[in-house]
Amino acid sequence: MRRLIACVFASASLGLMVLAPGAGADPTNHFTVSFTIICDGQSLLIVSKPGSSNVITVNGQPSTSVSVLFGLHVTDDQGNIVVDFQKPGNPPVQTCTDTSWPSGWTATAETIITPAH
């Protein structure tokens, strides 16, 4: 009986692996929303996803950099804190302005931008 269960499980697993589509490596196709942040006077278009995000362009030019988010601070047009997030024990970060929020709101992102390859 154990062998029968093991064979059924192995057959089902193999069948699923054959039928499953391959994983894509292009994060811009998986995460379709992007936003712009301004860091040291440079405009970075970033894929909107949690954690680390691919930088699509820097000042309109294609990029291979990655942004690793360590904090986000947002206040609305009335001065109310909407988001106040910061990872504990973070390394030195760059503070950037997030321009994706409504007019009158202020947003800063604490991030590390990896060098382009």
Characterization of the model:
The longest helix is centred in the N-terminal third of the chain and has 18 residues, at 2-19. The chain contains two helices and eight strands. The chain has helices at 2-19, 27-30, and strands spanning 34-39, 42-47, 52-58, 61-62, 66-75, 81-86, 94-98, 106-113. The chain has one domain (26-113). The relative contact order is 0.17. β5 (66-75) and β6 form a beta hairpin. The chain is globular and about 40 Å long.
Short characterization:
With 117 residues, this protein is an alpha+beta fold.
Comma- or semicolon-separated keywords:
about 120 residues; alpha+beta; 8 strands; disordered N terminus
Q: What would you call the structural class?
A: alpha+beta
Query: Tally of extended strands?
Result: 8
Task: List the secondary-structure elements in sequence, H or E.
Answer: HHEEEEEEEE
Compute the CA-based radius of gyration: 21 Å
Report the sheet-strand fraction: 35-45%
Q: What gross morphology would you assign?
A: globular
Helix content: 10-25%
Query: Span between N and C termini?
Result: 55 Å
Q: What is the arithmetic mean of pLDDT?
A: 76
- Order of strands across the biggest sheet? 1-2-3-5-8-7
Low-confidence stretches: 1-24
SS element count, helices: 2
Whole-number total of structural domains: 1
